[in-house]
TrEMBL record:
Belongs to the APC5 family. This is Anaphase-promoting complex subunit 5. It is found in: Cytoplasm, Cytoskeleton, Spindle; Nucleus. GO terms for cellular component: anaphase-promoting complex; spindle. Residues 30-167 form the Anaphase-promoting complex subunit 5 N-terminal domain. Component of the anaphase promoting complex/cyclosome (APC/C), a cell cycle-regulated E3 ubiquitin ligase that controls progression through mitosis and the G1 phase of the cell cycle. The APC/C complex acts by mediating ubiquitination and subsequent degradation of target proteins: it mainly mediates the formation of 'Lys-11'-linked polyubiquitin chains and, to a lower extent, the formation of 'Lys-48'- and 'Lys-63'-linked polyubiquitin chains. The APC/C complex catalyzes assembly of branched 'Lys-11'-/'Lys-48'-linked branched ubiquitin chains on target proteins. Its main location: cytoplasm. Gene3D superfamilies: Tetratricopeptide repeat domain.
Amino acid sequence: MASVHESLYFNPMMTNGVVHANVFGIKDWVTPYKMALLVLLSELGRTGAQLGLLERRRLNRLLLPLLQGPDMPLSRLRKAIEESCPHLASSVHIRLKLMAEGELKDMEQFFDDLSDSFTGTEPEVHKTSVVGLFLRHMILAYNKLSFSQVYKLYTALQQYFQNDEKKSGTDESDMELTNTEELEGKMEKEELDVPLREEEISCSGPLSQKQAEYFLSQQASLLKNDETKALTPASLQKELNNLLKFNPDFAEAHYLSYLNSLRVQDVFSSTHSLLHYFDRLILTGAESKSNGDEGYGRSLRYAALNLAALHCRFGHYQQAELALQEAIRIAQESNDHVCLQHCLSWLYILEQKIFDSCVLLEHSVNKSLHFGLPYLASLGIQSLVQQRAFAGKAANKLMDALKDSDLLHWKHSLSELIDISIAQKTAIWRLYGRSTMALQQAQTLLSMNSLEAVNVGVQQNNTESFAVVLCHLAELHAEQGYFAAASEILKHLKERFPPNSQHAQLWMLFDQKIQFERAMNDGRYHIADSLVAGITALNSIEGVYRKAIVLKAQNQMSEAHKLLQKLLIHCQKIKNTEMVISVLLSIAELYWRSSCHTIALPVLLQALALSREYSLQYLASETVLNLAFSQLILGIPEQALNILHMAIEPVLAHGAVLDKGCAMFLVAKCQVASAASYTPQKKIEALESAILNLNEAKTYFAKVDCKEQLRDVLYFQARLFHTLGKTQERNKCAMLFRQLHQELPAHGVPLINAFK
């Protein structure tokens, strides 16, 4: 490609095939594609008055991406013009044909005539307009060409036109074999407003300064807001390497290469590109021009800070700490308070890996507000809220703190942080077991319009906040038995965040967890076991916990107990309270199944104390249900019914469908056990009430296709109907029970020893 570039494109900084370091010293140079644009502007100026309002509007919208974007083949340019104004496209083609098939003096005359656009009392083009600046740049660049370069430009124009003619000839021959409807479909898909594709860029030569800046800013914006519309990592790196070949000191290209390497988790390439970015920033003097003599030191300290952030992202905490210490030292020598506040924020993140420290974070928030850094202050408040949520602070205090940060967001129009704040609220309500509030916050974020200006064709909301909220939404639907809706949400997530994108791991984990729960509900433990490996790869703690659940379901009690004990020690060490409580509940269930009912009680009381200490209301309710079940087993069903009334309301209001079914099933068991001491009439009423509760439990279990629990409910109902002498209802339940019993394996443990 280098030889093609040297022969077809005319960079005045290229001499004897060598590219000078400052290849962007000249902002623009003339290429055949830009000559085609000049012809378009010339024809538009001549026939503009004859065009309709709609055609002019379409052409005006078309011009800006054409002027800013990289060079493209003539065929694509013609198609773009034809979609806006077919008559003008024909005029441009004829004018280019006359110039390409004519003589060199025709091209000379064309550039001489361009200057007439600025003359007269009412010129066709204003000098300071976008089109006027482009025309002046082209005229200036053409006038600076030597005679040999003018001749090469004319030869390149002829080749540019001939390539289009050859392509048109092959397209006409292929048209006979192609359906007309398919051709129309392809034409509708080709729009200039969509981000640049690989084949569109690779056909162009070295980009001018403006084209390169436009390309880099567009791709950087896409990587931030909508990664799916950006070029693939391989093709983007290819274009960046091509750009750096013509200008190795283009610092912004090195930084985009750094961002691109982060997409694929390439430690070496990302570190290499980041260091090159700051090296070039210092060498080109860009920092010193904008910041005086302080520019050199500023680049060094921010280079160290970015390097620390990079190492922290990849889990290299020791290297990150060393780089951060270097950044702090240089920032203190330069008295740079802004850099020091960023360093303090990263210092908190590193310290958080070792021990919880609110002092650093509170100090960072106060200092950030003092130095007028609302973005950093808001991030500090968000982190503080998250830490205090894990520490068990009351939800109303956390929401008040988030309200204060929201005031900062709206005051300074920090759209991204508004999204993060709402996603944080969704996660907090989920942590506290308030699924209705979490659903409300999720819907709020999804229905919001962004405050930021978005490029055409860019989906603004492809950020981590939306990925988190959509994942919670999918899990909430799955918990309520709406598996089809959850699948649709996950399908949307897969389209929005492809597997190679940086936020794909979020939906991958939730997808695996939902599949696991469905397999467990359906009694397909071999399928659930196969999903454990995928969950472990994405989250080791979740994977180990679910492996223990599978072992418990398969009646491998000793193996499950060993695994849960190891997981409990690890979670207590890292202070993962939510998982500690879940593990304690699973250990208590193992004790029940092993007929060690008295040993389960201290474990449940420990789980209840933790859940109340950390304000985890839903887990507290679930623990109370387990305690009620223990009391039922120990022969005090009346006491079990009393404490059930404390816990069942939050479960029915915010719980998953499976938990609702288990709660109602437990109520029915306690009612039947309590009825043994009642008078005959009161006993009949208690049993009929238990049957109604069993019907409700059966509805819940059927919703999530939990066949094992359905079988247990049907067995229990058949026994109750038999006691009441209702033969027809008993036979119906017995028949349904037999069908499920033949389909499922034997229960393996007595019915009364299983809460879930």
